[in-house]
Amino acid sequence: MIVTRFAPSPNGPLHLGHALSAVVAHDLAKEAGGRFLLRIEDIDGARSRPDLADGFRADLAWLGLEWDEVTPQSARVDAYAAAAERLRDMGLLYPCRCTRSQIAALATETGPDGPVYPGTCKEAPPRKDEPVAWRLDVAKALALTGPLTWTDRSAGEQQARPDLAGDVVLVRKDKTTPASYHLAATLDDAADGVTLVTRGTDLFAATHVHRLLQALLHLPVPRWHHHALLLDEDGRKLAKRRGSPSLADRRGAGEDGRALADALRAGRLPAGITRSRSLHGTA
Ligand code: GLU
After folding, report:
1. Is 113 exposed, middle or buried (0-12, 13-18, 19+ CB in 10 A)?
2. 100: how many CB neighbours lie within 10 A of its CB?
3. What is the pTM of this model?
């Protein structure tokens, strides 16, 4: 059975790009007689506003979607800690005290998410009393797993290249945010039985990291579908702070949500909004 999910973070209201993501994931599951899940990814420390989640549910219902809701991330922190412990025991994590600005100043390579960690704390470990994040030693991990592949529904088989992003953080320094997105989302997709991970092409590179984590933690390997993003007139991803109305605004203004979902399905976009050209041959 196909199981897809929509996994919004309640850091801000949903907009049209989220609606597209939810409609795509919903339809891929429902057309195949499968399940469409909603998972609230609410572990983003001070940025997380759990009060927004009710609005998300109202947005999905307004779009005419049907879903089953699964456990939010805030209720699964013990599972994230246990997985991190396992990776630490395998000698695959190392503590890192570096700040963003230190990394930006020292990095010599840029990866899909910005500066690639230059390995400073791998060479000179932090003192015991310093607050630290825990990074995955990607080279060591890949040496253990050997080469890995994964499959995008449209772009086909991909060679996993977690090395491009470098030694990503799996456990954050900020104790209010227990696990990084990579660790939490990978564990949740397995726990929720997701078989087709559907999200925007902006997260294509994250999938390389998730595939490596699946191999290390012996998790089932789903398939992926990375869909095009919606862009504003300046070619940037839609964002409320740049003036794109939220779904809640549209709902409040009396717009027909089901008609909006149908327009997205048909590729009819509101004035000024375009679809990103596919980066990886995905639709
Ligand atoms: N919480 C993530 C976001 O809102 C979800 C990413 C994913 O679908 O894996 O961007």
Report:
1. middle
2. 9
3. 0.94
> What are the tens digits of pLDDT across the range 131-144?
999 999 999 999 99
Contact 29, 3 (CB under 8 A): yes
Which of 5, 6, 9 most suits a substitution to test ligand 1, by most atoms within 8 Å of the C-beta?
A: 9
Compute φ and ψ for 102, nearest 5 degrees.
-65, -40
Among the four given CATH numbers 3.30.70.2740, 3.30.1390.10, 1.10.10.10, 3.40.50.620, the one describing domain 3-75+228-275: 3.40.50.620
Which protein residue has the closest C-alpha to ligand 1 atom 6?
7
Tokens coding 95: 């503590």
| Predicted confidence (pLDDT) per residue in 230-259, tens digit | 998 888 887 766 767 899 999 999 999 999
Q: Angle between the 257-265 and 52-62 helix axes, to the nearest 10 degrees?
A: 70
Contact 141, 92 (CB under 8 A): yes
The rounded Å distance from CA 150 to ligand 1 centre is 19
pLDDT score at 29: 98
Pick from 199, 210, 211: which is nearest to 280 by CA?
199
Residues of the chain below pLDDT 50: 281-283
